[in-house]
Amino acid sequence: MRAGAFSIPQRRRPRSRRRGVVAVQVVIMLVVILGFAALTIDIGNVYRARGELQRAADSGALAGVSAFLGDNMLEALQSGYDGAPDPSLIDPIHDAADTRAVAYSEKNNTLQTPTKVEDGDVVLGHFDFSDPGAELDAEADPANFNAVALTVRRTSDGTNGGVPYWFARVFGLSDGQTAATATAAFDDRFSGYREDDRGNYLIPFTIHIDEYENQFHNGDDDWSYDGGNDDVNETGDGIREIKLFPYKLSGGGNDDNNGNGNSNGKKGGGGGGSSGDDGDEDQQGGSGNFGLLNVGNPNQGVPLIEDQIIDGVTADNLEAEVGTSTLTFFDEDGDEKTYDITGSPGMKVGIEDAVEQRIGDIVGFFVHDQVTDGGANCTYRVVGIRFGRLLHIDLTGNPDDKAIIIQPVIFNAPNILTNPNAAPSGGQVGRLSLVR
Q: Would you tell me how many other CB atoms lie within 10 Å of the CB of residue 423?
């Protein structure tokens, strides 16, 4: 050190204090980070569980309401009246709806475990499609039930438990709570059918609506279908069949005959009440209970009829015949619409092989309420469509045995159109959908 020079002592920094401040900041930031982690991961996990619960609820509700479309409901409808099922037969249907809702919910996992349904969380009732803001009415007449509501939950004290937290545990929170509800209903206010070649359902047959309803409620039960290839048996299964047969409604050829024949397909009813023909090929004269329609087939050619039976009536066929491929039987105001389609009350033996190829298939056939003219120049006023499974055809044997046998089904498909102002189809045709 130079002479005369001096030094100023350096003050030491308070390292321990700074370290303490940093430690506090780290703790605060850690708490913030954990908070964000709890928000993004734990709360995100709750939202994930909520989405999976909704999927389970949707699936369970749809499966539950599908019980209203099964054979048990069909039997109840056939034994009932005014479109309502027989009240004495509905309990098994409601039990099946409950069972299906629970089973299909459990087929859907929530956080990798089956989504179980708690007691009381399956609710059956009536949904009013004419009221957009309607809620399920569980107090309605059970015979009018058409909907299932299902709630599934993840709660701490519930069957499925809560949604586990990971980071939020540092705040003393162990799990989250969430739930989801879905309501599915069957809307039978059938208003129309859009042919877009998705299902090849329609075949060119028609039957008088009165005779269809007569056989639906009072027909024979001689056949059954087991659900496999060629599993058609000549034994009853509790469901009455529809016998399509070319017999007359009456003996006369008047142009506005709304009588109906009996279900054995041999005699005419209503109108003059006289006997009709036995349904031989190319039956002539009188208004027919049964009709073979010329849908886009003005020459009544058998090859096109066979194609329409095997592959279904196409959108182009409908366009050519009635000017549209969307048949509307009730407009937006609920007013009825009809279609005049030419045809013949005769049955062509040549179509038997084509029908044989569709045995076991569900098909759509037309229903009419009026026939004008007679013979091969009939015009049928078509008022709707019904659906059934083709079970049997015989056009060459004993005249008393000649028939096409169709077993009705309750039909639901995307190309079915519904309208709140349309008349109910008696539970026979409609759309199944989620409504809540």
A: 16
Domain-located, residue 432: no
Report the SS3 class of residue 411: strand
What are 134-187's pLDDT values in tens digits? 889 999 999 999 999 999 999 999 999 999 887 777 677 888 899 999 999 999
> Does residue 1 lie within any of the structural domains?
no
CA torsion, ordered 67, 69, 72, 76, to nearest 10 deg = 120
Q: Are 435 and 183 in contact (CB under 8 A)?
A: yes
Nearby residues of 174 by Cβ (< 8 Å), 6 or more positions away: 156, 162, 164, 165
Q: What is the pLDDT of residue 16?
A: 58
Q: How far is 388 from 371, CA to CA, in rounded Å?
A: 23
Q: Quick one: 203 and 303 in the same domain? A: yes
| pTM, full prediction | 0.81
Q: Are residues 137 and 212 in the same domain?
A: no
Work out the pLDDT band at 4, boundaries 50, 70, 90.
Answer: low
Smallest CA-to-CA distance from 161 within 206, 113, 219 is with: 113
Neighbour tally for 159: CB within 10 Å: 14
Helix, strand, or coil (residue 128):
coil
Q: Are the beta carbons of 241 and 287 closer than 8 angstroms?
A: no
State whether the Cα torsion 105-106-107-109 is positive or negative.
Answer: positive
- The residue type at 44: G
- Tell me which residue has tokens 């070649």: 197
